[in-house]
Batch of 2 targets.
Target 1
Amino acid sequence: MTSLLLDIYERLYRRFGPCRWWPADTPFEVCVGAILTQNTNWANVEKALANLKQEDLLTPEGIRALPQDRLSELIRPAGFLNVKTKRLKCFVDWLWERYAGRLDLMSAEPLASTRDELLAVHGIGRETCDSILLYAGNYPTFVVDAYTGRLFTRLGIIGEGSGYEEIRTLFMSRLESDPALYNEYHALIVMQCKEYCRKRPFCSACVLQEICNFPGN
DNA sequence: GCCCAGGTGGGTA
DNA sequence: TACCCACATGGG
């Protein structure tokens, strides 16, 4: 399994890499983007991020000081504006109270305890949490998303209906604990699925069929 | 018009 | 635990 997961990674890397994720200028922008992209097309998230940047508000201080109705207006393109306004506020409040608004202080803490803390913040579920930890904090934690489940179920590597923690544990136990590897692997999964696996449940033109020789494809 | 997008929280059985 | 649903917008 170790070599299989690495083999898939290397094939994807040769086809798509390096992806240079997360697309953001600062660690804090990663966090905001991770919350805004929940069940939302990234193109819409970019519009919301641009609105915040234009007003120089894409900082912990900026979001914290922003009235809720104004924040809602700025992030409107990303959808779920009431939900996401509340989630952004909760995240920033937590960051402020716990780490004085400084992500670098958060990133100095151990992975397990920081992950538990973040998961306890309203609006931060497993995927958002791991995205923040990996892409903003450089922690060695694997991000699982809908693409990951879809792709590796199709490959027969994970069972249908496997849970988040189960999939994350599989990757982390079979791969070296390396933030750079987890970073690129997740990005590659998203890139290949965006290009080939949009039709549910599984498309027939999956890139892995093109670049890999998996029996049953 | 319909479906989907880099989920999460709350309610119910 | 395992479902179900609300949440909002924009592109294909």
Note: Chain A has two domains: 2-20+145-211, 27-136.
Target 2
Amino acid sequence: MTITIRDIARQLDLSIGAVSRALDGYPDISVETRQRVVEMARQMGYVPNRAARQLRKQKTDTIGYIMPVESPRFADSFFSEFIEGLGDEASVQKYDLLISTAPPGQDQEKLIYQQWVQGHKVDGLILDRMFMSDWRVQFLISQKMPFTSLETSDEGSDTPRIEVDSRSGFVELVEHVFERGFRRVAYIGGPETLRIQHDRLRGYRDGLQKLGLLFDSALVSAGDMTSAGGYNSSKRLISIPDPPDAILCINDETALGVLRAANELGMRVGKDLAVAGFDGVRDAKYSNPPLTTVDQPVYDIARQLVRMLVDEIRGTHLLERRVVLPPRLLIRESTGG
Amino acid sequence: MTITIRDIARQLDLSIGAVSRALDGYPDISVETRQRVVEMARQMGYVPNRAARQLRKQKTDTIGYIMPVESPRFADSFFSEFIEGLGDEASVQKYDLLISTAPPGQDQEKLIYQQWVQGHKVDGLILDRMFMSDWRVQFLISQKMPFTSLETSDEGSDTPRIEVDSRSGFVELVEHVFERGFRRVAYIGGPETLRIQHDRLRGYRDGLQKLGLLFDSALVSAGDMTSAGGYNSSKRLISIPDPPDAILCINDETALGVLRAANELGMRVGKDLAVAGFDGVRDAKYSNPPLTTVDQPVYDIARQLVRMLVDEIRGTHLLERRVVLPPRLLIRESTGG
DNA sequence: TTGTAGGCGTTATCAA
DNA sequence: TTGATAACGCCTACAA
């Protein structure tokens, strides 16, 4: 039913080998024959069968990304921007993008990675939300499966990656709210073993120290990177005896939850309470009030991760394998403008 | 390098045929052999090669969705919720989800559909943002490629689909703002040939008529379903001689843009100006102020579309092929609460 | 420059 | 119940 190279070959009275080579742009074919083949293929509406090609070439022209989220219904705009970047660049590079979601660290996650890697569903993978120690990195290295990541784990000392200097971003953020007159600065973070939690908490502490502010563990709360988590944590923080006048969050999603809580409580965000996030997602610009944040170019990072991955897959190690980006402080009304 | 059924067969001194059948759960194999095979497969970490299976079985166990968006960077939360639903249900049904984006109606879109369908990349497709007359429907029918859609085109008289009664949803919406005292009710829509534009505009007009309000074409504006479009359209509407005191939008994304414009202009949304959307995306709940909207369960619709599609693919036409859902008015502060 | 043929890993159709 | 064996559509040595 479907058109194969065999059909084209028959029409043109050529061998399937010749047709195949003509279509793939091999040099050892006469210009005239190639033209005839290409034209006929177009006419007949030929589309190569991917399964066959994959089976033969042992590659899939597909890259994968497994979104590390707890709940299936979770939609952080960080991820949508990230996935947009992946999708756009994958399409530029003529790769397909396979996407799934799995709660990090669970068996289900391991199963998917195993299926994708060992079942040859992808030629390479994009990782993010890295843990300090991350089994995915070990696994992929052991399977010789190419991957690139945003941030990195301790295992991946030489893996191609993009890093954002979260620490110094957070130092800047602390300085900024200090300058605006806020003194009791709280922090809502994420899971302890997450790389960015490590880096950003560190930046928070370094910032305090630099300004001569005391670190108070009562002002540090563990969120879960969701807006619900931010909402809950902030309600708790606000109700302690000597409550904070500023809340810095590990990511924008958390900060958006804080805004919700503060608005509910009738606090004047930017005056009574400063709130800031980290990521620079689009939503943050249109929140109420607009959110101060440390911007990392999520979309562009995603695109570059794909480019690096494709280089890895093709074995052309031309680009630098480790890119470090400085984040950029975006001051908006949530910290007084 | 990778483990194939051949390796298992060798280990167990069986034929590859026997191994294949044992693994696939065929009945004509002894219980004992099956156990040995399954156990050995587990031990050796066998994962079936999908390309080979696809090539042989002529199916991909993959469903596709091509997001109909103009700009690559466009991210409407309607789509993220929709895609979440698709992804979750696909995973339940043991299907992969292949995603791409393409501007509707352009050659690029046709190319992707052609590649996916004729290159056997997917077993079925999910469609949305249907046009009154939609080439995709014609194409897929002609190719005998299963698909399900949210809303439908004129061509798909008997295709499996979910429909939401937009018209009556909009009538309700008009009644609601009327009740709140708003009298000059505007509408910001989308591309003219879009099914939902047709239905929702119709509901808007029917609502006006029911209440004895005059239809005024100066109050109808064509947006593009984006928040930027809503922003621009509303600025224009607000500046006309006899401006509206209520703006109803074809979707939430548009309405969020209207909110932004109104906030910028210092209007008190819910008092000076009523604003409402359609979709019930999560973001609408947390906008400033929270947005009145006509809710359609986007996530659940997506899941059900996948279930229906899988039924189509498997040829088990058990379910009803046409599901009509009533939308639900969610009243929030943007129309006075 | 072109044709021939083997094989990628599976499943399915036969015999045994 | 099991074992051969032929496809599925494509790519690629190798031969012509």
Note: Chain B is about 45% helix and 15% strand.
